[in-house]
Amino acid sequence: MSAILLGWNPQRWNWADYDEWVAQVRRHGTRRDTWSVGRHVNIAAGSDAWLLLQGKNRGLIGRAIVRSEPYKGRHYSDPEKTANYVEIDWLSLLPIPDRIPPVVLNAEAPGVRWDHVYGSGKSVPVESEAAVHALWERFGPQHEARDPSELPPGLFPEGAVRTIVVNRYERDPRARAACVERWGLACVACGLDFASVYGELGKGFIHVHHLTPVSQLGPDYQVDPIADLRPLCPNCHAMVHTQDPPIPPDELAARIRASRTSVGPRRTVPNRTSPSTCPDCGRPGVPIMYGEPGPEMIAAAEEGRIAIGGCVIYDGRPTWTCSQGHDWRVDESART
Ligand SMILES: [Zn+2]
Ligand SMILES: [Zn+2]
Ligand SMILES: [Zn+2]
């Protein structure tokens, strides 16, 4: 397998309906195109082709497969000249704000001289091909998580059902791990912990939500998994994305609390799934359980779902605690 780089400089080539192409490629999986490859003639059909956005906002932005040998055609900007072209099939294109910036490219595939690519058709060093694939897999196309929010039709008004586009930071396994390490595996909005409901099956399952829309991030943005990411269950994740920009998770948590205290049937929700955030440090809390701990309680405490409060039960005892050891009391009487 071989691979080439294609260049696109928006200052020199106005691809006015680029966003349309992004959407079509996403919908249909592919779209045929023709791209110039400058003077390069040694390009094999079947090669990978990577589109590099040039000019002031550089970054990797598209993936294609070359479908033809290079052929001569009239130059795209100067009818007096000829240029070499190849037929390509786009396989994925990123919206411009989601391009993978040079800082990531240089770190993940240092064998490619990303800053020295100007024309099209230059080949990717063989030893770097795998690294380019890997970085595209990690930072590239947004994957749509259809499962969590595609609700059965008929239950909700038209338009209420939407697809969450999970951005690349939400998919990045390292960022995800750091987020979960810090914030835990329970949903920060509703408190749902998959392992406690689904047992073994739910272990380790949680969505990770990126607080800032990708379109608002600068080109050299680096994710801070602790400041920028929060664990959310798929329901809460779908709910925060019903608005653009998304609803902040603490605001959603407040809405859940408000509706739980006011809506009748919700009173059956057990206390342990009610959310509570530490009033001192804002970290998510776990309920404190009092009484002689049985095996179930000990297991729950070991998994960090509850804290054991001991056998002394007194009025005004704290009902929640956070990972920093702050204790507080939430009046549960309104809920039960
Ligand atoms: Zn939730
Ligand atoms: Zn999200
Ligand atoms: Zn705290």
From TrEMBL:
InterPro entries: HNH, HNH_nuc. It comes from the Bacteria. GO terms for molecular function: endonuclease activity; nucleic acid binding; zinc ion binding. Transmembrane segments: none annotated. Residues 174-238 form the HNH nuclease domain. This is 5-methylcytosine-specific restriction enzyme A. It comes from Micromonospora coxensis.
